[in-house]
Design brief:
By secondary structure, the chain is of the alpha+beta class. It has three domains: 68 residues, Alpha-Beta Plaits; 133 residues, Pseudouridine synthase; 62 residues, PUA domain (Archaeosine Trna-guanine Transglycosylase, Chain: A, domain 4, Roll), CATH 2.30.130.10. The chain starts with 8 loop residues before the first strand and ends in an 11-residue tail after the last strand.
């Protein structure tokens, strides 16, 4: 059984509909008896699929894992737009749906593949003048959200019906699939909203390794070193290099044997199956500096 406060590592779960990401985190805090639980990218309540949960020292990986791309399968319902741009919202606009040919839809998808800026949905957690945009929107205000830099690496049409289409897409951090429903519908001379969203991958974690919820009891977590190897360039270092990295000292690239050429970071350094630190190249000194240090797990007590 997990000792209170000692849960350490990563758990990939398959989130069911109806739960917020915070709901899932709260459940895990109770189940694993620790406050140190986070995640590597929010899923809306109506969405399902991969949610990467971070326990203990793994929460320090959040800033890295949240920047990695994500893959989704989405269904867009045309003819009605909601205030949240998904099926959980209130319908605010209706418009007829023109006859859609595959050629026309592919043309709209091609424009989306080229997208470099995206205006987020009004109902989002982005702060406007220090307040969440969704709080302003739910008071009837129209918060002005600035376009954000995004990228679309894959966008594939899976199915096309008279007033519905399904796509598979891989996108960058900061991309809102709900905004895709809005923008794609408008390009097709109608309005729309997201009726289904399933995340297949988050960075290097996918549905194949996801545990369904709810969990009746704690399950083993993926150790930090294994998670780092899956997600980042990782180097096994000597005990002396590990010691200096643990104290935040700069590391010569020559000590990172096996590091691929041109990699500047983040780089995970591991010693004796423990994640020691994340490093990043300092272009001025040409040494790798410590971005994040990790506290080693407590030694097992005899007979434990």
């Amino acid at each position: 059984m997990t000792k209170p406060g000692q849960a350490e590592g990563i758990l990939v779960v398959d989130k069911p509909p109806g739960l917020t990401s915070h709901d899932v985190v709260s459940q895990m805090r109770r189940l694993y008896r620790t406050r140190r639980v986070g995640h590597a990218g929010t899923l809306d309540p109506m969405a399902t699929g991969v949610l990467v949960l971070l326990f203990g020292e793994a929460t320090k990986l959040s800033s890295v894992l949240t920047t990695q791309s994500k893959e989704y399968e989405a269904t867009i319902e045309l003819g009605a737009e909601t205030d949240s741009l998904d099926q959980d919202g209130r319908v605010t606009l209706r418009r007829s749906v023109p006859e859609l040919t595959r050629e026309r839809v592919e043309g709209a998808l091609e424009l989306e593949r080229q997208r470099r800026l995206q205006v987020p949905p009004a109902i989002s957690a982005i702060k406007v003048d220090g307040e969440r945009a969704y709080a302003r929107a739910r008071r009837g205000e129209s918060p002005e959200l600035l376009a954000r830099t995004v990228s679309v690496s894959t966008l594939e049409l899976l199915d096309l019906q008279p007033s519905r289409l399904s796509v598979r897409l891989r996108v960058s951090k900061g991309y809102y699939v709900r905004a895709l429903a809005r923008d794609l519908a408008r390009e097709l001379d109608t309005v729309g909203h997201l009726s289904r969203l399933r995340r297949h991958e988050s960075g290097h974690f996918d549905l194949g390794m996801a545990t369904p919820l709810p969990l009746p009891e704690p399950v083993p977590l993926l150790p930090l070193a294994a998670a780092a190897r899956r997600s980042l360039p990782t180097v096994e270092v000597s005990q002396e290099t590990a010691r200096r990295a643990a104290f935040g000292q700069p590391i010569d690239a020559a000590e990172l044997t096996g590091l691929p050429p041109g990699v500047s970071g983040p780089v995970a350094v591991v010693h004796d199956s423990a994640l020691i630190a994340l490093l990043e190249l300092d272009t001025i000194t040409n040494y790798f500096r410590v971005l994040r240090g990790f506290v080693p797990p407590p030694a097992e007590e005899p007979g434990a």
